[in-house]
Design goal:
The structure is a single chain. The chain has 247 residues and is mostly helical. The protein is built from 12 helices and no strands. It has one domain. Helix 3 packs antiparallel against helix 4, helix 8 runs antiparallel to helix 12 and helix 9 crosses helix 12. The radius of gyration is 17 Å and the shape is globular. It starts with a helix and ends with a helix.
């Protein structure tokens, strides 16, 4: 259970009591718990959305739900996404990595985050009510199964840093241990739409990691965080498209 405690502490702002191992390598060993943390996050989001949808119009309810989503995670993955976007302007891999290490956000990062959040809010708002709560329940679990997959498929950009430490701490079967229950949950919650959303989410996460590997020489902790955000958005957009396309 120490792995679960560590995963909750790292992926959310929930201050769980007790002792747990420290370090990003220890977090790699706890990666199998990531979808469980995502499911817990999804349960909270369903509650927030149910209350908000009773009190407010759909767009405002979606805005409040996504706000709760990002607050509960401490903006951790959004920070990684912003850093990746800012790093695109670098001259070479070393320069891009130095930009990504800078705590200040640049124009690419700021504009990218605004557009990203607008897309996510719109995707949540436009989902039919019966589909919305199920998507909010399972998409966070699915997206949090992507870091071990990405870390296994791509080398680390640096010998030190969060990405390298997380990768070194991964157990041999970490990726399937995280992915299989997440996919089963998506199938149970959303059926065919969920499987399509899962496919889009995994492809988006791997495509992002592949693109950043070409730019940086590997993946970093920021890339792993960005992969979670991109997977969430791709999953939501796919489920929304499925609902819109059906007669």
């Amino acid at each position: 259970m120490t792995g679960l405690i560590l995963a909750v502490r790292y992926l959310t702002i929930v201050p769980l009591p007790g002792r747990a191992a420290h370090g990003v390598d220890a977090l790699g060993r706890a990666a199998g718990w990531f979808p469980v943390v995502g499911l817990g996050l999804g349960l909270v989001l369903v509650g927030v959305e149910r209350v908000a949808s009773v009190l407010f119009p759909s767009l405002l309810a979606a805005l409040l739900t996504v706000t709760a989503w990002k607050v509960l995670t401490g903006g951790l993955h959004l920070d990684g996404l912003a850093d990746c976007l800012d790093g695109l302007v670098g001259r070479d891999a070393e320069h891009r990595l130095s930009i990504m290490r800078d705590s200040r956000i640049g124009a690419f990062g700021a504009v990218g985050l605004i557009l990203f959040l607008l897309l996510e809010i719109a995707a949540v708002a436009e989902l039919p009510a019966g589909l919305r709560w199920r998507a909010l329940l399972v998409v966070p679990a699915l997206s949090r199964a992507t870091p071990p997959l990405v870390a296994r498929c791509f080398r680390a950009a640096k010998v030190e840093g969060h990405g390298a430490a997380f990768r070194s701490g991964l157990r041999a079967g970490a990726a399937p241990v995280a992915l299989v229950p997440a996919l089963a949950l998506v199938w149970a919650g959303l059926g065919v739409a969920g499987l399509l959303g899962a496919g889009a989410a995994l492809v988006a996460a791997l495509a992002l990691a592949g693109f950043m590997t070409a730019r940086l020489g590997g993946v970093t902790g920021d890339v792993l965080g960005a992969a979670i955000e991109v997977a969430e958005l791709a999953g939501l957009l796919t489920v929304s498209a499925w609902a819109h396309a059906r007669p």
